[in-house]
Design brief:
heterodimer, A: alpha+beta, Ubiquitin-like (UB roll), Fumarate Reductase Iron-sulfur Protein, Chain B, domain 2, 2 domains, five-stranded mixed beta sheet, two-stranded antiparallel ribbon, B: mainly alpha, 3 helical TM bundles of succinate and fumarate reductases
Amino acid sequence: MSTATLEQPPAAEAAIQSFTVTFLIRRFDPDVDTEPRWQDFDVEMYATDRVLDALHKIKWEQDGSLTFRRSCAHGICGSDAMRINGRNRLACKTLIKDLDISKPIYVEAIKGLPLEKDLIVDMEPFFASFREVQPFLVSNSTPEPGKERVQSVAERARFDDTTKCILCAACTSSCPVFWTDGQYFGPAAIVNAHRFIFDSRDDNAQTRLDILNDAEGVWRCRTTFNCTDACPRGIEVTKAIAEVKQAVMRGKP
Amino acid sequence: MTDTIEAPRSPARPARKRGTNWEKWGWIYMRASGVVLIVLIFGHLFMNLLVGDGVSAIDFGFVAGKWADPFWQWWDVLMLWLALIHGTNGMRTIVNDYTNPGAVQKVLKGALFAAAAVLIVLGTLVVFTFDPCPPVAADAADLLPSFCSA
């Protein structure tokens, strides 16, 4: 038997089908507009394109004034969280084939944070509550000289889920409690506190539990699961918050 | 150029004041009372609506009969207290969500607290002091329910 070979060269590849997709984008230019307005764009898209590709096409070919954040464009940097068809998603991880293109696709900035321009919001309040939970290792012990701090596989697995956070703010800006007055720490800050509270190498869990045992802390969570649904990394956010609540009640992780 | 960042470990908002953490106990209360209320309310509905003649049995005499028994007195009082505090606390969180700290919020919370307090006091008083056959003048005896003369 001879080596299997391609019997005949493939016929000229059938043209990949493209679709005209309508995007309704909530625009806001603080220099001109007093109120945000919806503007529609028709874009030629392939099923495998992402919403971010559509935004690029609009910006590069139709309206250069469209403003949005994106850095890596591959779901790691967390820059392009936005509200797509009413759900918080990363534009770079939302494929056209997963959306209903028989209707316009609504794209707007995430809610609950001050709108600056088009799809860009002021992330500072979000990062402020992130900083408040002390999201860094605080250890009273020193590892053996030349060694790392030892941690078992089980101890590492305890907080593995919450290490995945990319701080895109999709969860916090999907939380109806955060929308009310913006005082609530928000899911993302609690997730990042969880990451250190349950880290066996960290010695500052008590401080973080005290910070979150506040009127604006974990007790404001109503377990609506919006955050879990919004997380582009699949973190079980509501579960993490519940674990922090349990830890606060126990008084230790 | 060196940029010094603010000490990252200094708390950004003032630490919670010492003393009872009402927010925490409020949350725990909601969980605990919710579980107890499921038993109390469904037991209440079962006894009132399903057992015996069912809903058609409920009248003045039915209630009087129930409250003649300390077991049902305590059942109803417990249900009253747990449910009213549970509901009022839930309303309080809604007020917290929909209003900003200030006069309006204070008035709304005050109204909630007052309504709950009045209902709890009144309800408890009625359950424990209810007398279906109060002593009355002889000429008013016909106003009493029929079972009082028995």
